[in-house]
Write a structure and sequence with these properties.
With 91 residues, this protein is mainly α. 80% of the residues lie in helices and 0% in strands. It is built from 4 helices and no strands. It is flat.
């Protein structure tokens, strides 16, 4: 558990839980309840790593010819297509 004022830590933890619940609800709308957990985890961890690489200077647009925003948009589009294909019974 993080150090600090227990009341502040509890409030921050509850706020993070609410944000994650809202994020999961958005992903559920995109792909359906059956796959929401795994796609939400994929999107969250990927976006986090993309941000880390960009902040560390390892995601140069000159080298990769893509921005962090474009990568996240591509990932969301791929997840959306996957969810739509599964809704139609395709894999």
């Amino acid at each position: 558990m993080p150090a600090g004022d227990p009341t502040a830590v509890d409030a921050a933890t509850r706020a993070a839980d609410r944000a994650q619940d809202e994020f999961l609800a958005i992903v559920t709308d995109l792909v359906g309840a059956r796959d929401a957990d795994r796609f939400a985890a994929l999107l969250l961890t990927s976006a986090h790593r993309i941000t880390d690489m960009e902040a560390g200077g390892h995601l140069s647009a000159d080298k990769w010819h893509v921005t962090a925003e474009e990568l996240v948009s591509m990932l969301v589009a791929m997840i959306e297509r996957s969810g739509s294909a599964q809704d139609r019974g395709q894999h």
